[in-house]
C-alpha cells in the first residue's frame, strides 16, 4: 500500500505543473503534443522530417527529453528548429515541472506548435501528464504487432498512433500484421487516429501532416 | 531529496529478496540471466530459438515479465520449456520478490539454466537487482546505434550485449554502425561480450550458445 501512496504523491506534485502548462498553452492558443515510444522507434526522425517537409508553413519548437546526451536536440537544431534539451539523469520520463521550465525557454511567440519528445520508454511516460494538448504514440514495425496488447496504457491515452518504418514491411523482412495493431489499438481507444508512415522514405507522412495542420486550425 | 529517499526505500526492500534469490541460485549451482531490452527488440524470439536449437543439450526454464497478457509465456511453452508468467499490472520492471515466487514454481531440479525476461523497458529494469547471475541486454539494429550513449546504465551493467536483427542490415534498410555501438558499449563496460545475431535467421547465434554453455560449466 505504501507504494501506491508514494505514487500518488509524486503524481500530485506533477499535476500542479501540468495545470500551469495547460493554462499557458490555452492562453497562447498553440497545440503541444507529447510524443512517446520505445527507444529507437523513430521519434526524432519523424520530427526532423516533419520540420523539413513543412518548412515555410509550420514553425515547430521541440522539447527534447533524454536520460543523457544532447544528440536528439542537435538533430532538431540541424533542421533549423529551436530545441530545448532536458537531461533526466537516469529518470525514465519527463515531469511537468521540467516541461514548464523548457516552455519558458522556447520562443513561443514565433512558433505554431510545440512537440515534446519524451524519454524513450513505452511504459512510464504514459503515467505523467505534462499539460500537453495530446499524446502521440509511435510504434516501429520492427517492434512487432503485439505491442498494443502488451503495453496498453499509452495506446489507450493517445490521440494518434504513428506506425513507423513501414518501408521495412517490403520483402517480408519483419513479421507485422497492421490489421492486428489497428484492431488492438481501437479496442483500447476507439477515437485514436492511426497513420502508417515511413519517416525514412516519406511514405504516408502527408496523412500525418494533414492531421497536424487541422489541429493547429482547431486550436486558434 | 524526498524522491531519492523514496527510491532508496523501494530498492532496499527489493534487495532483501534479491539476496534470497542469489542464495538459492548459489545453492543449486545454476545460472540465471536477466534479459533486458526495449519492447520488441526480440527477447522472446531469442529465447525460443535458443530453446529449440539447444533442445536435448540445454534444459531451459523462463520467468516471463509483462505488464499484461501471457503472449510471451505461451510462446516459450510452445517451444516445450516451462514458463512462469508474471503480470506486473502496469509496473515498468520486475521486482526480486516476484522473481522469488516464480523461482519456487519452476522445476529447478530438471533445469540447467533460468532466464528472466524482464518487462520491455531499456531504463527502469536496470535499477532493480533480481539476484541474477548476470544481465543480458538486447538491442535491435532497428533501434539505432546511438542507444548505448543515450541509455548507458543497462549497457554498463550487462555481461552480454546481443545486437539482434542483423538480417535487417542487408540492403541498407536501416542505418546502423555496429562499430559505434561496440565502441560506446565498451567505453561504458570494458568486460561486456558483444554478439551480433539474428534470432530470425540464426546468424551469429552459435557464438551466444558457446558463451551460454561456458557459463553453465563455470557455475557447476
Task: Please explain how this structure is put together.
The structure is a homodimer of 220-residue chains. By secondary structure, chain A is α/β, with parallel strands linked by helices. Chain A is 42% helix and 17% strand. The first copy, chain A, has eight helices and seven strands; from the N terminus they run αβαβαβαββααβαβα. A seven-stranded parallel β-sheet of chain A has the order 3-2-4-1-5-6-7, with helices on both faces. In chain A, helix 1 (2-28) runs parallel beside helix 4. The first copy, chain A, is globular, with a radius of gyration of 17 Å. The A-B interface holds A 3, 6, 10, 38-41, 66-69, 71-72, 90, 92, 119-124, 127, 140, 142-144, 146-147, 149-153, 165, 167-168, 171, 173-174 and B 3, 6, 10, 38-41, 66-69, 71-72, 90, 92, 119-124, 127, 140, 142-144, 146-147, 149-153, 165, 167-168, 171, 173-174.
